[in-house]
Amino acid sequence: MPTLSLAMVAALAGCATSQPVTQIDKDTYLLVASSRWHGNDGVAAQGLQQADDWCRQQGRRARIIGSERSEGVIGVMPPKVMLSFKCDLVRQ
What we know:
- By secondary structure, the protein is α+β, with helices and mostly antiparallel strands.
- The chain contains two helices and five strands.
- Strands 1, 2, 3, 4 and 5 form a five-stranded antiparallel β-sheet that branches.
- Helix 1 crosses helix 2.
């Protein structure tokens, strides 16, 4: 999973929205995020951060296993990202 600084994620993810995380298999989840005012990179950063935040609430780390993007047109049709992920145990 790409590593982004928290400040960069926050800057890119502003004004973005996402649907609730959905369980699609026993240990696999789906997150869909979009933004009217940020490009594909901002939406992707927001989705990565939200997936990891969701897993961290369970004491785990997100591992992205698949993604799809739609470019959209900024201000007209928002770009979207769909992430499928698993929550792995944190190894110490």
